[in-house]
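Everyone, describe these structure tokens:
***
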Amino acid sequence: MMKRLEYQQYGGPQVMRVAPFTLDVPGKGQVAVRITSAAINPIDWKMRQGDMKIVTGKRFPRAMGMDLAGTVLAVGPGVTRFQVGDAVFGQSRFKECGALGTAVIANQNALARKPAGLDFDQAACLGSPGITAWNALFDKAGLTAGQQVFINGCMGAVGEAAVQLARSAGVRVAGTCSEADMERARALGVEQVYDYRRTDLTGIATRYDAVFDTAANLTGAVGFGLLKPGGVLLDLHPTPGKFLRAVFNRRLKLVLCTPRAELLDQLARKAGDGALRLTIGKVAPLDDAIAMITALEQGQRLGGKAVIRMDRP
């Protein structure tokens, strides 16, 4: 029997339930995936809270979860990237979600083949953080070898992915994190690491080609103040006001998590080469997903990604 985490109305943690469901037949360009592992992201509970109901609509029940790793069960018409039995990772469809379940339908262009040396837990963590980091560093900022980026929140999931992707491209990295994470940041190649609790960023003399605010707590004045002439401020939390501002200020780049086939394939290559790994904080079974999401939503820190493994007892 297929089961998944879902909700019957928008709201808090109390609306979540693990329930049986029937998996659809994959349509054109779609793939059915039996999920081995899924990673939890803040977007999961923000969608459940109704923050994006202008997109997700009013049809219920709604499934939860975006980031996944598993094995292809079936392919729809026009699928050329995968065949039944392939191990894959990536994202479910944004509007439908469903990664926090035993199977899901995904678009083929939001998946890539899992590298043989990468386990399913690790692969499940790559989707949203890896895609978002790539979108920011290369699609929006166009960073190249020898340039410099400042990553605010460099040891969060997106920040950790951004550090590794930047370093693998020859981009020099500085950034902020907690005191407890500073040694880990240095080990990943962050050249200048600042304790976000104790550092006044306006006192940093170096100027950067890009500032990536993964922690979403920089003021525009501070972010723009860290830039070289022509540098760009990468913002992960677009609002209508920011979209308007970005029209008139080309140094402000709003970053949306936008998967595509060649990007996922690049992440797969980086992960396969050992250049991209995300820290895992906790692994739990699907029946414990509600408790885990509730704790994370209420501010619990795990020191890494939260992963739901479907075959875990």
The chain has two domains: 3-126+278-309, 129-254. DSSP finds ten helices and 16 strands in the chain.
